[in-house]
Structures are given as structure tokens and as C-alpha cells.
Amino acid sequence: MKVLALFTASESRGPVESQPAVQLRAGCGIVGDRHYRRNAKPAEQITLIESEAIADFNRDHQQRVEPHTLRRNVLTEGVDLNALEGREFLLGNIRLRGIELCEPCSVVGKLLAGDLTPPQVVKALLGRGGLRCEILSSGVVRVGDEIVTPEDA
Q1: Dihedral sign computed on CA atoms, order 131, 69, 105, 55
Q2: Is the whole model's pTM more than 0.85, yes or no?
Q3: In a 10 Å sphere around its CB, with 0-12 CB exposed, 13-18 middle and 19+ buried, how is residue 97 labelled?
Q4: Chain centroid, CA 151 distance in Å
């Protein structure tokens, strides 16, 4: 279970950029990301999505969606993010708590629409859109870092 990619966007609806590492600040978010602020709402601090969910969407709908287009911050491999809702876990050495599933919205539906309509995109990604998390400790996360769940500890 590991981090495959890290993404930030400096402004709302602005371009998403891949990062080799990001600085996380407890209670604030990702330094340099559009949602970073003091006392940020827990569900707005960082978002994760499974690479497997994107691969399944692409396979099932004959698409070529790139991970950054979903506008999540962390692309994971080998971890069931839905199982981490309401639980603490480690992203590298940073403690996170899963707050709620990050269900796809109409913005994502419009971004990914092509052969599918926006509502079809949203329906296809329900329950697979990722996890919103609260950052409980500060530090740096890098591509390749391990993800440790309570079952692994």
C-alpha cells in the first residue's frame, strides 16, 4: 500500500500539478494547495483516491481518464479507502483521519464527460470517488511513501 502520485492546484478550478512531495500541516491542509488555510474544515484538508478505482472506470467505460483530472490530492495503490472512513491511518509518517467518502460531483461529471454524460460519470464513480481526510500531524509526504492502516499496525 503506497502513494503513487501527489497533486495540488493553487487555485479553484486551476490546473492540477503533479508533485514529488508535499508539505502537510495539521488542521490546515497541503501547503500551496487551493484548500490550504488555518483551521480548514477537516473534510477539506486532503483527498485521496485509489488508482484501482480509476483503472476500473477506464476499463468499464472504455475511457482514458488520467488521475489528476479527478482533482484529488493523493493517488494510492493497494488500500481500500472506503474502509478508512472514520479511522486513523498513516500516510508516510503523517497521521490522517478518514472523514467521509469523496463522492463525485457535477464538476467532475462535466470534466470527464465524453462518451458518457455528466450524470453517467457521477453514477459510475459513486462509492469510488475517494476519501476526504483530516490532517492530524504535520510533515512531508513523498511519492512512494507507505500507507499504514490500523490492520497493518
Answers
A1: negative
A2: yes
A3: middle
A4: 21
Length reported for the chain: 153
Instruction: Check the CA dihedral 111-124-19-135 and report its sign.
Output: positive
The dihedral sign for the CA sequence 134, 135, 140, 145? negative
Q: How many CA atoms lie within 13 A of 138 on its CB side?
A: 6
**pLDDT averaged over the chain?**
92
- The residue to which cell 482514458 is assigned: 64
- d(C-alpha 127, C-alpha 57), whole Å: 12
Nearest to 23 by CA among 47, 6, 4, 38: 6
Convert the pLDDT of each residue in 99-129 to its tens digit.
999 988 777 788 777 788 888 888 888 888 9
Residue 107: per-residue pLDDT? 77
C-alpha cell read off for 12: 479553484
- Taking only the tens place, the pLDDT of each residue in 68-77 is 988 899 999 9
